[in-house]
């Protein structure tokens, strides 16, 4: 009950929270991914919060702040200000409410919102792409659920919150979020048994050439191909890049690149050994536009 102690104050480390996507619009009675209400607190560390939107909005965080009058004298703001609600060393990225950290905090009292932002920034929270290898949302498994971070992800390099001293419950993890080099969903979960999980690995090579003057997406080679092929693209400036593969009816089958990259020419190896023969599309999304080509897999 929100009016009686002890209040709910769990301690949680290394979770990967993924919503329906920042461009999705699922029915919901709330507009935030993580909400503390009814006097709850808690400590959330070394975790990833990403890809959330709903029919009521797409914020990342809401800490309940009521007027504390009448019978309702307590709220989660009190837990936050009493040091019983903390979020440290987390990655936040891709919310429907907007592109910046300040957009992701649910609107409430302006002074309180500023205080939340200052707290998050002072306690190791980072707004950066965790570069997850693959998030599948189809009703049937296509083997493209691989929530491990790509090489180069900040989830593998950023500073982590220390575990509680002398507490054997927690296990040390050398990364932010629930996944490091191993996709531990495989072999025992229903997701794996239903064909959702896969091992997505991408080799990205920067080619030594003159700096490009425009964005280009080249035809893959070889094409047609068997098992694997190489995709080359060029960037004229530093920008956000996403290289995605789709099947002929538009279902996403792989995310090869999802990162901030500098100007240059890049080659990416696409491993299609788990896919059936057929026509596939690959699309390069950049800050300046999208570019698409076709390729043919022959077994």
Q: Order of strands in the sheet with the most strands? A: 2-5-8-9
Secondary structural class: mainly beta
Count up the helices: 4
Largest beta-sheet details: 4 strands, parallel
Order of helices and strands: EEEEEEHEEHHEEEHEEEEEEEE
Identify low-pLDDT runs: none
Describe the structure.
It is a single chain. By secondary structure, the chain is mainly beta. 9% of the residues lie in helices and 34% in strands. The strands form six sheets. The protein has a four-stranded parallel beta sheet with strand order 2-5-8-9, with no helix packed on it. Strand 18 and strand 19 form a beta hairpin.
Features of the shown structure:
mainly beta; 34% strand; 4 helices; four-stranded parallel sheet
Q: What is the fold's blueprint, element by element?
A:
Elements: E1 11-13, E2 16-18, E3 32-36, E4 42-45, E5 48-52, E6 59-63, H1 76-81, E7 85-88, E8 91-95, H2 101-104, H3 110-122, E9 126-127, E10 132-134, E11 146-149, H4 190-193, E12 203-207, E13 216-217, E14 228-235, E15 239-247, E16 252-261, E17 264-271, E18 278-286, E19 289-297
Parallel strand pairs: 1-4, 2-5, 3-6, 4-7, 5-8, 8-9
Antiparallel strand pairs: 10-11, 12-17, 13-14, 14-17, 15-16, 15-18, 18-19
Question: Could you write a compact summary of the structure shown?
Answer:
It is built from four helices and 19 strands. It has helices spanning 76-81, 101-104, 110-122, 190-193; strands at 11-13, 16-18, 32-36, 42-45, 48-52, 59-63, 85-88, 91-95, 126-127, 132-134, 146-149, 203-207, 216-217, 228-235, 239-247, 252-261, 264-271, 278-286, 289-297. A four-stranded parallel β-sheet has the order 2-5-8-9, with no helix packed on it. A four-stranded antiparallel β-sheet has the order 12-17-14-13, with no helix packed on it.
């Amino acid at each position: 009950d929100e009016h009686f102690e002890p209040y709910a104050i769990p301690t949680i480390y290394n979770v990967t929270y993924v919503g329906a996507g920042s461009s999705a619009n699922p029915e919901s009675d709330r507009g935030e991914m993580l909400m503390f209400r009814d006097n709850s607190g808690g400590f959330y560390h070394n975790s990833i919060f990403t890809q959330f939107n709903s029919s009521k909005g797409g914020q990342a965080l809401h800490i309940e702040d009521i007027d504390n009058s009448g019978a309702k004298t307590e709220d989660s703001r009190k837990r936050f200000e009493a040091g019983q609600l903390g979020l440290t060393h987390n990655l936040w990225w891709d919310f429907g409410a907007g592109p910046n950290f300040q957009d992701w905090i649910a609107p409430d009292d302006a002074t309180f919102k500023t205080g939340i932002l200052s707290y998050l920034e002072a306690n190791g929270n980072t707004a950066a792409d965790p570069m997850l290898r693959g998030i599948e949302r189809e009703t049937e498994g296509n083997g493209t659920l691989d929530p491990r971070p790509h090489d180069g992800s900040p989830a593998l390099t950023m500073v982590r919150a220390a575990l509680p001293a002398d507490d054997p419950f927690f296990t040390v993890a050398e990364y932010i979020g629930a996944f490091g080099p191993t996709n531990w969903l495989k072999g025992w979960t229903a997701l794996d048994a239903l064909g959702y999980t896969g091992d997505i690995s991408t080799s990205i090579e920067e080619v030594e050439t003159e700096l490009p003057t425009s964005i280009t997406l080249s035809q893959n080679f070889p094409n047609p191909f068997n098992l694997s092929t190489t995709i080359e693209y060029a960037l004229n400036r530093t920008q956000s890049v996403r290289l995605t593969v789709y099947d002929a009816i538009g279902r996403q089958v792989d995310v090869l690149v999802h990162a901030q990259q500098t100007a240059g020419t890049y080659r990416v190896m696409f491993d299609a050994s788990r896919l059936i023969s057929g026509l596939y599309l690959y699309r390069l999304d950049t800050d300046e536009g999208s570019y698409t080509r076709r390729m043919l897999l022959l077994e």
